[in-house]
Amino acid sequence: MKTVTHWIGGKPYGEGSSTSDTWGPVTDPATGEVTTRVAMAGPDEVDAAVATAKEAYATWRTSSLAQRTAILFRYRELLNARRDDLAALITAEQGKVHADALGEVARGLEIVELACGLGMALKGDTSTDVSADVDVTSVRQPLGVIVGISPFNFPAMISMWMFPMAIACGNTFVHKPSSKAPSASMLLAELAAEAGVPDGVLNIVHGDEIAVNALLDHPDVAAVSFVGSTPVARHVYGRASASGKRVQALGGAKNHMLVLPDADLDAAADAAVTAAYGSAGQRCMAVSVVVAVGSAGDALVPRIAERAAKVKIGPGNDPTSEMGPLVTRAHRDEVAERVAGAAAQGADVVLDGRDFTVAGLENGHWMGITLLDKVSTDSDVYRNEIFGPVLCVLRAETYEEAMEIVNGSPFGNAGSIFTRDGGAARRFQLEVETGMVGVNVPMPVPVGYHSFGGWKDSAFGDHRMYGSEAVHFYTRGKVITSRWPDPAETAAGPDLGFPASR
Ligand code: NAD
């Protein structure tokens, strides 16, 4: 069995150590077999990682931008060369198909590329002669030790949203990946070391809430970037803020796709199937609800069903598979239970994936494509994030009724509209209460130089991931007011008034 240890000070840490005697299992979702044991950190490993990061910060914060940029460019090249290996690690532990895992790596690389050019975003502003002989300069400086806590569903990409930007800004980093899929983060760290990231600048501790809470409480941690489910995001935001840390905590989602009757319904059906069932629905940007307006519903549901029934489900390392298994057996069973509950609460079960299995891999965490129609807003399957291959269709008579449904959701990650009516699309963009919006685009994941984040229960804290918002999150402002008077000037003497410009 493979062993995954922590990564502290530029090397593996923890195997055989007296404090790291707890191990967690990592399962291959396609076979159900435990393939790996992962070290689970307690307060001792957390202390060691934070102390190492703190020590490294003393020199990394003053490293030149040229040096950081050169390292990040080398890192980008190494990652690019190892895309396939990273994708294979993702598939082996998360379950998604290889092509999808490659897409994840590509979107993560976008952020590394953004970090390569961060000098531009870090340059300050200067105003000269704001008063007699007085100049004012605004600069942004790093915070110190940053903690990143990430979920299982993007084992590489979400880490790459966080640490490249944080370290490019001059911080050092302690990452706590999901212990369900820890191996991709280790390859990311090994490649960072190979690229020249100094020892201690990027560290990893694996574990569960014990490790997380020790990080949230640690006095030497300056800020926390979190991505995961809403209950944990709320906990992380509250606990880390309470100890004075800067926090961004992205949570769960229930993304709605509103379809008007004038939309290209074939394109809308393709989009719904892609966005609902890709990665077996285990994406925070997955469309889990279609709100069909007026006549769109009767025309759309059979189109979705026809396409969805053809999706080929199988192990992620089979190049013919389009959708893989769910991450754990427990999660698969929870999703299946939600589907049973939906039928009992009056939904029409158009496609039922509960009995699906793959011959020869019966212990895999399989859940087939599930399509539920005429779902009500008070049913459990609608009110909760399911995070599986389950698409709910709700019907509305009018745009206004549909928007009441969309904006009535406590989640606000992403929302999309499918229509040919520019006026309706514009109205939707302005009215929808989500942080990301798609117009004839089902999963509007912003490119790296914009930024990512939801509203309402989908994100706590006011800074989004990547883009210029990340620069703001990972740095703090300082404004320097300076005056170099002519030495020949006679000193004016003390003046106890509040300084005013002249
Ligand atoms: P999760 O909340 O269970 O875990 C996220 C991280 O928190 C992991 O590192 C985990 O070890 C840790 N954790 C879990 N329980 C904890 C607890 N009680 N106390 C402290 N730490 C704890 O999420 P997950 O199941 O790994 O990932 C799926 C969730 O993440 C979904 O809800 C999905 O919508 C969300 N997600 C959101 C985004 C986004 O950008 N908003 C992106 C990806 C995933």
Automatic annotation (TrEMBL):
Domain Aldehyde dehydrogenase: 21-479
Enzyme class, spelled out: oxidoreductase
UniProt GO BP: L-valine catabolic process; thymine catabolic process
The name this protein goes by in its record: methylmalonate-semialdehyde dehydrogenase (CoA acylating)
A Gene Ontology molecular function term of the record: methylmalonate-semialdehyde dehydrogenase (acylating, NAD) activity
UniProt entry keywords in alphabetical sequence: NAD, Oxidoreductase
PROSITE patterns referenced in this protein's UniProt entry, alphabetically: ALDEHYDE_DEHYDR_CYS
Alphabetical list of PANTHER family matching this protein: MALONATE-SEMIALDEHYDE DEHYDROGENASE
EC numbers on record: 1.2.1.27
Source species, domain of life: Bacteria
